[in-house]
Every structure is written in structure tokens, then in C-alpha cells.
Amino acid sequence: MVAPPAEGEVADPLTWFGSPGLFELEIGSGKGGFLLSRARSNTDRRFLGIEWANKFYRHAADRMARWGMTNVRMMRADARDFVMHHLPPACLSALHLYHPDPWPKKRHHKRRLVQPDFANAAVRAIKPGGVWLIQSDHAEYFAVMREVLDQQVEISELPWEQTGVDPGEAWEGTNFEIKYTAEGRTIHRAAYVRQP
Asked: Which of 14, 121, 136, 185 has a CB 3.0–4.6 Å from the CB of 84, allowing a cystine?
């Protein structure tokens, strides 16, 4: 576990680990299913999982400890604030955003994470050649996220199969993905790469 940076502080994520490596961020880790699977398959990479719900944050942190995942850190923080104000430029090799809260009521749309200002900050934090992966069961919000990301001139869409994150291999899936797939819902996915 790592504490959120202080106000005005820019984090140096690799200082949280005992050795260097490519750095990936998952926003909304839930119980940590995807994060654990990804970290176990990529022990040379460093991972941060951000989760706001205290119950899920503690569950995920305990899960990583039980598995001895020294390449994973968990943080309980507001992901929007962390990305917009505390991540240094070009530090992420991958940003994972799976099933963010769609806030389906129109009056709540302003609470959605993926807005132009957040997307600007997220793209700035992704290194050239790094990827941003999104996934949702909510078709309308997925379309909105695609629209916002398509307006970012520094990234372009990439076939998911070229990201190195293959849903068909070593993909345990997020809790929401497992639940919604069992319910027969369509899972929408898209991937973007930051241009050199």
C-alpha cells in the first residue's frame, strides 16, 4: 500500500518499488482480479492499482500481500485527482480503465471520469508507445469515452491484440466483466497508443 501524494506533490512511482521496470496503472481495481492476473504474468513490470471504495481497496491490498506480489502497490485515492495533479509526464506504459462508473442518469454525467480534461492529463502521463485500454458493458458511456479519446491528437486507436493485453490469454477478468458476461451483456473494448 502507498499513501496518496500530498497536495501539489508530483509522484515518482518507481520509488515505490525496489527495482525499475515498466509502470502500469489500473484505475478502479475493485477486488484486484485483473491486477493480480496481469502482475503475475508480467513480473518484470510495476503496477499501481487505485481503488476508492475502502472495502474493495483493503480486499485487493490483502490479496496482493497473500500472493506475495512485490511488483504491485495499492492506493486508496481519487483517481481523477491523482492522474490530473500527481502523475509525472510520460511515466505510464499502460493505463487500464475497465468498467468505470457510467453514472447513467443525465444529471450525473458530469461525475463521469472520462472527460476532456481528464483525458488530456492521462495522455500526458502515458509514454510514447504506451497504451490506454478501456472496457465497459455500458454502450452509451463507452461511445462517449471513445468520442473523448478520439479527440486526443496524441493517441490513435490500436487493435486490442497489439497491446500485449490479450483477453483470451491470462485474462481472469474484472469482477464486473465476469458478472456481466454471465448475465449475457456485451463487453465493449478499445485500445489507444500514444504516438512518438
From this structure: 121
- Assess contact for 135 and 175: CB atoms under 8 A: no
Residue 187, CA distances (Å) to 19, 108, 159, 176, 184 in order: 36, 22, 15, 10, 9
Tell me the pLDDT tens digit for each residue of 68-123. 999 999 999 999 999 999 999 999 999 999 999 887 888 989 999 999 999 999 99
Between CA 146 and CA 166 the distance in angstroms is 20
Cell 478499445, residue located: 190
Q: Which set of grid coordinates corresponds to residue 167?
A: 483477453
**Would you call 183 helix, strand, or coil by DSSP?**
coil
Catalytic residues: 101
Least confident of 5-9, 76-80, 113-117, 143-147: 5-9
Question: 189 forms bridges with which residues in the sheet?
Answer: 135
pTM: 0.91
Beta carbons within 10 angstroms of residue 42's beta carbon: 18
Please answer whether residues 17 and 43 qualify as being in contact, where contact means their C-beta atoms are separated by less than 8 angstroms: no
Please give the class, per CATH, of domain 13-194. Answer: alpha beta
Measured distance CA(148)–CA(2) in Å, rounded = 30
Q: Tell me 47's DSSP state.
A: E
Cα–Cα distance between 141 and 41 in angstroms, integer?
30
Give me the residue label for grid cell 444529471.
107
Q: Retrieve residue 11's grid coordinates.
A: 509522484
